[in-house]
Amino acid sequence: MHNFLDISDCPDPQAWVAEAIALKRSPHRYSTLGENLALGLFFMNPSLRTRLSTQRAAHFLGMQTIDMDMVSGWPLEFLDGTIMDQHKSEHIREAAAVVSRYCDIIGIRCFPGLEDRDLDYSEPFLTAFRKYSSSPVINLESATRHPLQAFADIMTIEEYKRTVKPRIVLTWAPHPKSLPQSVPNSFISWAAQMNYDLVVTHPEGYELDPKITGSISIEYDQNTAMKDADFVYAKNWSSYMEYGKILKKDSDWMITGQKMKITDNAKFMHCLPVRRNVVVADEVLDSPDSVVLTQSENRIYTAQVVLIHIIDSIRE
Amino acid sequence: MHNFLDISDCPDPQAWVAEAIALKRSPHRYSTLGENLALGLFFMNPSLRTRLSTQRAAHFLGMQTIDMDMVSGWPLEFLDGTIMDQHKSEHIREAAAVVSRYCDIIGIRCFPGLEDRDLDYSEPFLTAFRKYSSSPVINLESATRHPLQAFADIMTIEEYKRTVKPRIVLTWAPHPKSLPQSVPNSFISWAAQMNYDLVVTHPEGYELDPKITGSISIEYDQNTAMKDADFVYAKNWSSYMEYGKILKKDSDWMITGQKMKITDNAKFMHCLPVRRNVVVADEVLDSPDSVVLTQSENRIYTAQVVLIHIIDSIRE
Amino acid sequence: MHNFLDISDCPDPQAWVAEAIALKRSPHRYSTLGENLALGLFFMNPSLRTRLSTQRAAHFLGMQTIDMDMVSGWPLEFLDGTIMDQHKSEHIREAAAVVSRYCDIIGIRCFPGLEDRDLDYSEPFLTAFRKYSSSPVINLESATRHPLQAFADIMTIEEYKRTVKPRIVLTWAPHPKSLPQSVPNSFISWAAQMNYDLVVTHPEGYELDPKITGSISIEYDQNTAMKDADFVYAKNWSSYMEYGKILKKDSDWMITGQKMKITDNAKFMHCLPVRRNVVVADEVLDSPDSVVLTQSENRIYTAQVVLIHIIDSIRE
Fold it and tell me: Buried (b) or exposed (e) across A142-176, using 16+ Cβ within 10 A?
């Protein structure tokens, strides 16, 4: 049985990307593969793209989907041994076990609290859910990872790249709210497994978890980083060092048409939703070089590939 | 590609009504027409009848449906060029474009604010959504139009009419809350295209948009209007002239058994939900001449006809 | 046409349990039985197990399901003759009638207020809904009954029993909140129709409706009741006599490993969600004798049997 919690659950990232590109040409090819199987989607936080793309992917495979909106509350107890006489009405042990009796595959979304770094990076919800679930679990964006997004991002690069080893710039960009690090974390992890010239650029203080960035090149000057770039992926994240904090709000790191001129006619990427004229200027987002809608659309085919591999592991 | 935003999007209203009546006899006739297609339903406001009937219609055509409840908030930016550093997290440009990458047909509901008439009648949400969507859009009740309801209403009249040119009375009725004008607007627009003797009756001050009523007969005396009526369609709306205001609350415009006696054994119509003994007396709603449940049921077959025509335009 | 509001709607409880056990071995056996039929699920209160298991059951039968979350409000008027000028926007007469034009089978959940016993035990919502619905109605847990849970509970006993006439103990257990009596009511009603040595044990003041317990043995000493038990079903309920009240909160009625030793290696049962170390100690719930997950899983097959019988009655 396979889970898909992080890209480490993908045995061959390059092969999966190739499968997704092939599937895009004929998404109905496996229209009965998932027959009689149910995919349960549990959202502890709001979702538009993930909700739509994953349901669509499951439908293309003939699966039933059950969309459970838990945003208004699913007060689960995580501690073992607790006397549950307060506000938590169910323990994660029963919750995950029961749900996996009803659903053959389970997708869960649970964002971080962004207050306690060790807690968030221990992935308490995802880890406990997988532990007590008897069905495979898919990460629909957890506290610190968003592997389905990363998969679609890399697929998009593979579709648009013009050189064998493209230069990819992941750049921090401003945002008024404190956002998780899950998208950059997963993007870096997957991109590191591809044949890319990858550089991460951000203001000082926005260094990501060194266990994730590893030996990836870090550049504090955005203009220097963007030189000769084939792809510019803009994304905000809150500080990992001063955990969850916003250290900088001014607009000098926003991606503008002027900055894109430094690149080698780079494609512009963002995972959406995006704040116009904060993260990126209209002129860039509305230009033919923006591939953000393709990134979103590719969420369907990449989710399909993940489901196909999990279904294969169930059927074995 | 066809949209269905208003009845002007229907090239032949009489033919569509005939198709809906035929489909009612065998609703499963086209059970594979929509195979592999997904209908996304986006509700910015609550829905019971529209939600159920449209999902049922899609299912009869073999389509997948994805029901998105956005009532608790989907804070979209509509203005171009804005610096999005406040509460709106996504621009309608991306929202509509992304959603249409996932859904082959999109239904949207968005009620009016009833404060700014020019704004509401410009249909900002519907217009922007259609502009940026690459998939056909269906109006599930917008600020000033409800064409799916009008279609089902006209179908009901065609099923029950006993004369070639029936007399149809659309009458204003009291209601404690300020309601949109979308139902009367769309009903009048569609009825005007049929062979009806149509009269609209309401208290002074409740005149609808003159661009919609056009040359339709207006009668300020309800009793005079109801004389010889074959169908009495009761519906409240707030004032168009003093926009969104309630000018009158007393019960003298309520439809009673006494008033129905003025008619030629008329059928009673309402789009539901209806407030009993405010809009209409129990004795009328519970009489065999009430066709309100048929109006509701016909929402299925009329939605099917709309979907069939849109699917045909996609497959072309 | 069959409804399934209470176990009195099941003509042969023993036969239905046997059907559910057989179906568990091949749940896809009737995968086209429900083709073209829609099951509407209306939840006035939250649901996890019922929502998932009933949708899964319907899917195994090839039905469409429409999940309607009405928790945030569906303000229905129940009184006849009311002038509806206040907060209720629709009468149950229209609501139930309309919904049954869209859905071939309707499931509804509506919990009790636990303030007015006569009102709750008159089952106002369920009764009115059935009265005005033209489609069969399934009780997804009403004010005082939960027959789908009871069905799954009895099926579980039949799977695990080691003797012809097992000893079943239904024991009250503590809980911090005031809970309905629907689960014990329906369990007792169904168990009374089986070949069981059934005893109900609870503190004084927690006597259930005598019309339901009838001649069932009541034992006020939990230890005495549990002697030689084959199955111990723990469940909290609020007082029927002092209606809706919590009379006792201390932990001496909690099911512990020590108490389970009094039994004849009994299986432990609970309908979930369960509060650990309040209702039951971890050591019992985590032991191999706990069958709570099987009870939950069996909700699928028992719901399928109910749907199959209702579909048969529709097709006749």
Answer: bbbbbbbbbbbbbbbbbbbbeeeebbbbbbbbbbe
Residue A2 lies in a domain: no
Mutation target for B interface from C64, C65, C85: give the one with most B CBs within 10 A.
C85
Place B3 in a pLDDT band, splitting at 50, 70 and 90: very high
Residues in CB range of B146: below 8 A, 6 or more apart? B139, B182, B183, B185, B186, B271
Q: What is the ipTM of this complex?
A: 0.96
CATH number, domain at C94? 3.40.50.1370
- Asked whether A253 and A153 are in contact (CB, 8 A), the reply is no
Chain B residues lying within 8 Å of C66, measured CB to CB: 51-52, 55-56, 67
| Full-model pTM | 0.97
Q: For the CA atoms of C19, C21, C27, C32, what is the dihedral angle to 10 degrees?
A: 0
Residues of chain A with pLDDT under 70: 1
Tens of pLDDT, residue by residue over C47-61, are 999 999 999 999 999
Question: Cβ contacts of residue A139 below 8 Å, gap of 6+?
Answer: A4, A5, A6, A107, A108, A126, A145, A146, A147, A148
* Residue A80 shares a structural domain with residue A194: no
Radius of gyration from C-alpha coordinates of chain A? 20
Four-point Cα dihedral A74, A79, A84, A85, nearest 10: -90
Q: What is the pLDDT of residues C19-32, one digit of tens each?
A: 999 999 999 999 99
Task: Give the pair of three-digit tokens for residue B211.
Answer: 């661009």
Looking at the structure, tell me whether residues A184 and A248 fall in a common domain: yes
Domain annotation covers residue B2? no
Interface of C with B (CB under 8 A): 36, 38, 40, 64, 66-69, 74, 77, 80-86, 89-91, 93-95, 97-99, 101-103
Domain count of chain B? 2
Please answer yes or no on whether B60 and C85 come within 8 Å at the CB atom: no
C154 and C290 part of one domain? yes
Distance linking the first and last C-alpha atoms of chain A = 9
Same domain, B133 and B219: no
- Residue in chain A closest to C276 (alpha carbons) equals A84
Q: Are residues B125 and B172 in the same domain?
A: no
Provide the number of CB pairs (under 8 Å) joining chain A to chain B.
Answer: 75
Neighbour subunits, C (≥3 Cβ pairs < 8 A): A, B
pLDDT digits (tens, 9 = 90+) for C175-197: 999 999 999 999 999 999 999 99
* Cβ separation A278–B90 shorter than 8 A: no
Do B241 and B260 fall within a single domain? yes
Q: Which residues pair with C138 in a beta bridge?
A: C4, C107
For the segment C73-124, what is each residue's pLDDT rounded down to a tens digit? Answer: 788 999 999 999 999 999 999 999 999 999 999 999 999 999 999 999 999 9
**Closest-CA distance of chain A to residue C170, Å:** 21
Give chain C's end-to-end CA distance (angstroms, integer): 9
Residues of A in contact with C28 (CB under 8 A): 36
Contact B85 A176 (CB under 8 A): yes
- Beta strand extents in chain A (DSSP E only): 38-43, 64-69, 76-77, 90-91, 105-109, 137-139, 167-172, 197-201, 217-219, 231-235, 267-269
CB < 8 Å to C276, chain A = 77, 82-84, 91
Let me know whether C119 and C155 are in one domain: no
- Contact at 8 Å (CB) between B196 and B165? yes
Which range marks the domain in which residue C202 is found? 149-295
Alpha helices in C11-48 (DSSP H): 13-25
Q: CA A270, CA A234: separation in Å to the nearest integer? A: 6
The answer to whether residue B1 sits within a structural domain is: no
C96 and C140 assigned to the same domain: yes
Q: How far is CA A261 from CA A199, A220, A252, A292, in A?
A: 18, 19, 16, 19
* Residue C2 belongs to some domain of the structure: no
